[in-house]
Amino acid sequence: MNEKLQEAIKQIESGYHEKGLEQVEKMIKEADDETKRTIAELYYELGLVDKALELAEELMFRYPDHGELFAFASECYIELGKEEEALDMLNEIKKEDPAFLQAQLLLADLYESQGLEEVAETKLLQALEIMPEESVLQLGLAEFYLNRGDYQQAAGYYKKALSSGKLPDDLPVDPHVRLAEAYSAGGQFEEAMEHYKEGLKKEQTSDGLFGLGFTALQLEDYDTAVDALSLLLEQDPDYTSAYGSLAKAYMDIKKWEEAGETLKEGINRDEYNEELYLEMAKLQLSRGETGEGREFLKKVIAMNPSNVSAVQEALYFYDEAEDYEEMIELIRFLDDYNEFDPMYERFRAKALFEENEISAAAQAMDAALTTLTRDERLLEDAAAVYLTNRQKEKAVPLLEELLELDPDREDIRLRLEELKNS
């Protein structure tokens, strides 16, 4: 590298940006083409993309057969939001050009970002037909399918890339970890564990440790989950999504104090994390601290009335406690925010029934029964509401359905006989 350019780069790296950039600017006019290419890359790294593109276009004019210059210029266009120009330029790169592989990967990313997933997939598959043993393309397809949620396809291409033995040295994430992510997302937790452990031997990344901890939780391997998530939070205390998972692991092995401390620490670091408040509510309720549990549930729902998990947790709690006033208050609060779920109608019906508002309870039960899976408890509650509202024609079919689910319910059989004979 040119000595003057090396000196300028040192100035920039030492914090003397303006002085270093002035030196770079001065040498451009007399620089050879190789130095100009290096300066263009430097500008790109520093975020001076327009200057990088200006140099790239100058070099492209002199070297129209150098595909790597076209690929570099297209990256500049992408950074500048000129995607159509980037597409045109990438499509100019010929199959025999060494930059063809890079061009296909960039094209696939561009098409995918534009929502043209089928085009992106076609580009990658066509390139793989030309270079079937190219591990970079196999990894590109694996990433594409993983992002699309096609976990089986993703796993297949990650495995091919790993078996090739020709992986690039500068991959941002170990392919074993990415394969583990695909397996875990697809519910193949045992396979995921194996590859997480292999991938984390090289570098214990935060995302990798979180994935290992989450997967271990699914397999009820709580020791591994605690070890992985504790190490993650030691390395990166601001990885706040790990606090809830670590607390769950502690709760599963009945280490209540550790779970509570973990959640408190997480909330201190992220006071708007709904999951942490919800887990704290569950912890307090499971320990009999119902007052604190209620307050944490209320905080979650006040923060986000759309949090269905928190709302359902509160509704089940109020039902168990037979606190129908609180239940109705919560449902009316949700009404104010236009939050609707058939499950809420089931509880609305139950609360209104208990508060002796029978007609309104029957209307709510109508809404619940149109969507919800009919379990025994729902059928029995609905029949009681309809019978009290003098709607025998609606109650009888529900009691018959209930008897089919549980033929040993002699009380239901007798009630049906009585209704049919009345």
Detailed description of the structure:
This protein is mostly helical. It is 76% helix and 0% strand. It has 25 helices and no strands. Helix 1 packs antiparallel against helix 2, helix 12 runs antiparallel to helix 13 and helix 20 crosses helix 21. The mean pLDDT is 87.
Distance between the first and last residues' Cα? 100 Å
Give the helix proportion (percent range). Answer: over 70%
Uncertain regions spanning at least 5 consecutive residues = none
**Average pLDDT taken over every residue:** 87
- Counting H and I runs of at least 4 residues, what is the number of helices? 25
Shape call: elongated
> What radius of gyration results from the CA coordinates?
31 Å
Number of strands: 0
Secondary-structure-derived class: mainly alpha
Please state roughly what percent of the residues sit in beta strands, choosing from under 5%, 5-15%, 15-25%, 25-35%, 35-45% or over 45%.
under 5%
The largest pleated sheet is described as: none
Oligomer: single chain
Order of helices and strands: HHHHHHHHHHHHHHHHHHHHHHHHH
